[in-house]
Amino acid sequence: MKISRFLLNLWGWKIENILPDVSKCVIALAPHTSNWDFVIGKLAYSSIGRNARFLIKKEWFVFPFNLLFKSMGGIPIERNKKQSMTDTLAEEFDKHEDFQLAITPEGTRKRVPEWRRGFYYIALKARVPILLIALDYKKKAVVFLDLFYPTGDYEADLVKIKSYYKGVHAKNPKNFNPI
User: Is the whole model's pTM more than 0.85, yes or no?
Assistant: First the structure.
């Protein structure tokens, strides 16, 4: 916790509008346009004494990296496997008293026309809120935006969710599509 806070301060980052801790949630961390997003997001969250799990390609889960990623909360995923990650991850919420899962809604660092739906449907199926967090590189701030409860109307909810990220400045702005 102290090391995370020290590194954020050293790099000039601050955390704004910290919301109360909830034991279970899906964290929608956006924008995701750089590998630094993971580093900054993880440091910020741990600097306030919280620990979120995160998804990582199974290919990265090889020795010795697997030890590091597992200790940090990494969950290896196989993208080619024919299984419902939504169902599998929603079931994880039932297995744990505390489970916070960070997901980048864009799913990649490149510009995408639409955000992926997984973060939303995992939260809906697990019956947990979505903690909306923005990485604003212009302000050098990790901003807690809101705690959003999915209604089941994906299209309407996504319009509301994306509206929170309007005006947020990505590290690589050309790769961020909040609207």
Answer: yes
